[in-house]
Amino acid sequence: MAQLHAFSAATVAPKSSGLLQVHEKLCCSRRLSLSNKFGANVSEFCGNAVLQNSRCTSEARKNHAIKAVLSSDKEVETNGRGLRGKLNKVVLAYSGGLDTSVIVPWLRENYGCEVVCFTADVGQGLQELEGLEQKAKASGACQLVVKDLKEEFVKDYIYPCLRAGAVYERKYLLGTSMARPVIAKAMVDVAKEVGADAVSHGCTGKGNDQVRFELTFFALIPALNVVVPWREWDITGREDAIEYAQKHNVPVPVTKKSIYSRDRNLWHLSHEGDILEDPANEPKKDMYMMSVDPEDAPNTPEYIEIGIVSGIPVSLNGKEPSPANLLSELNEIGGRHGIGRIDMVENRLVGMKSRGVYETPGGTILFSAVRELEALTLDRETMQVKDSLALKYAELVYAGRWFDPLRESMDAFMEQITRTTTGSVTLKLYKGSVTVTSRKSPYSLYREDISSFETGQIYNQADAGGFIRLYGLPMRVRAMLEKGM
């Protein structure tokens, strides 16, 4: 039976062990020293715990990203080799749900390997992160690695898409599409740290996420093996998965299964499945989780001011929180006003159409703010080119090509072209709507002395006659030809 250990500041352990056994929740008292030692951020739900076992302790000492290490008391007879081949160690994208809990013993049985479970915190909420240590251990994992990626997610993935104005098929703000490459990149880093020769995920063969994960793996470490159980095993549904779990003594998660398939992160919450599979059905009111019904939103509007520097949000109402905290606060503000609900039928990368409902309260507010500021700072030709490239940018991100040189080159253009998109925007939030009320920028191309109806020195209205005659010359020549003139 595996034993869990953690450093404690309250009690000094015997010199012979240097460790104090803990039975309930993992807690680390010397958070700062351990954080520095192992290079991991402080976790809100499990601390910077280092757990000891016979196989993984030495690796934990040298692998900087390790949050937790678990030993397994579940053995799978493989005779040194799995049913499908031999791998030494596999890093699995792990959520603790039924599918990934079953994948752990399946990998061990079929590839004779140790399994390192990896969980990324991209803002899905603490309730989805609780108890993962015990679940991973019970499933047979060798190690559990947890990384807090929220700030990286917002700063390095969300903000570039926001600056580019990337929207897929007129509506989708790319919530899941942006999250997958940051998770996959972290998996590659963990694979290097623990010496894994393969990675694995629980995506099905019908969705977009399998492409997003695997293209990132190919781009960053092409020699790494990729194991995708859903494209190999005989499990076809939930009942098969439960039966497999029971056969291998893996506790089935007891959480109530939602009738919807959901994906949540700091940017959005998506809903698919059940009645939504018929595009004719209106979503049920109790389905939404991040936002109130606009009909139930406050009867008084709320005004907020967003500060922007070079196309990137930096402040909210004069305060400058971190990127993740700024987005979190906007999610709360936008959610209570019913902002950011989208119902759409989209074209998946694999060819089929799917219907999804998205909640993106904070993101909708930020998109409105950046777009409105660009109206001041970008000229007509630049805005048209930027908007045309934004469509391709969104398509690349949706298709999982984040690390494609084309997207990176387009991002360099977006960064250069928005260098003067600096200023502030005041927005009015009211019952599901976002309305701009004020925009200011030191780089504004708007000139009141030119735009005014009053006669000015810069713009002579008499010049318009010659301009119109020249601009309309092609139309005039065609009309003359048709009339025999």
Automatic annotation (TrEMBL):
Ranges for domain Arginosuccinate synthase C-terminal come to: 260-477
EC number(s) from the headed UniProt entry: 6.3.4.5
What Pfam family is a match for this entry?
Answer: Arginosuc_synth
A GO CC term attached to the entry: cytoplasm
What SUPFAM superfamilies does this protein map onto? Adenine nucleotide alpha hydrolases-like, Argininosuccinate synthetase, C-terminal domain
Q: Provide the Arginosuccinate synthase-like N-terminal domain boundaries.
A: 89-251
**Keywords from the named record:** Amino-acid biosynthesis, Arginine biosynthesis, ATP-binding, Ligase, Nucleotide-binding
Output the CDD domains linked to this UniProt entry: ASS (cd01999)
Q: Which GO terms describe its molecular function?
A: argininosuccinate synthase activity; ATP binding
Supply the enzyme class, top level. Answer: ligase
Q: What InterPro entries does the record point to?
A: Arginosuc_syn_C, Arginosuc_syn_N, Arginosuc_synth, Arginosuc_synth_CS, Arginosuc_synth_type_1_subfam, AS_cat/multimer_dom_body, Rossmann-like_a/b/a_fold
Q: In which pathway does it act?
A: Amino-acid biosynthesis; L-arginine biosynthesis; L-arginine from L-ornithine and carbamoyl phosphate: step 2/3
A single GO BP: urea cycle
Write down the superkingdom of origin.
Eukaryota
Q: Which PANTHER family match?
A: ARGININOSUCCINATE SYNTHASE
Q: What is this protein called?
A: argininosuccinate synthase
From which source organism is this entry?
Spinacia oleracea
- Gene name? LOC110787445
